[in-house]
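Morning. Coffee machine broken again, so started the prediction first thing and wrote up yesterday's gels while waiting. Chain of 109 residues, entered below exactly as on the submission form.
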Amino acid sequence: VLVCDGFAGNILLKTIEGTSKFVMKKFSGIFSGVLGKLAGAMVLSKAKALKKRFDAKEYGGAPFLGLAKPVIKAHGNSDARALKNAIHQAITYAETGVIEEIEKTMQKA
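Came back before lunch.
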């Protein structure tokens, strides 16, 4: 969890996304050639799971904390899958009761 202003958060998010894409591209590049393809076949399921874990479309977005209603920030170039997951994220976030917990904590403070 990182708490920061929107400008710094966006810079950090874009840096992480860019680094992730770079590493995944380089990672897949080592599986070229005959031996690379053979080695790639041995780790294919693990590599796909890793790629899925770093895919922003799998998460859809992230919640803005401290608002009265659930708001999920999705990526500007989100496709249909990412939007579907952002909607699922909003439903799940609303059901957790986080908003109410933040309100209670702020009232105590």
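The two ends are 21 Å apart (CA to CA). Going to sketch it on the whiteboard this afternoon.
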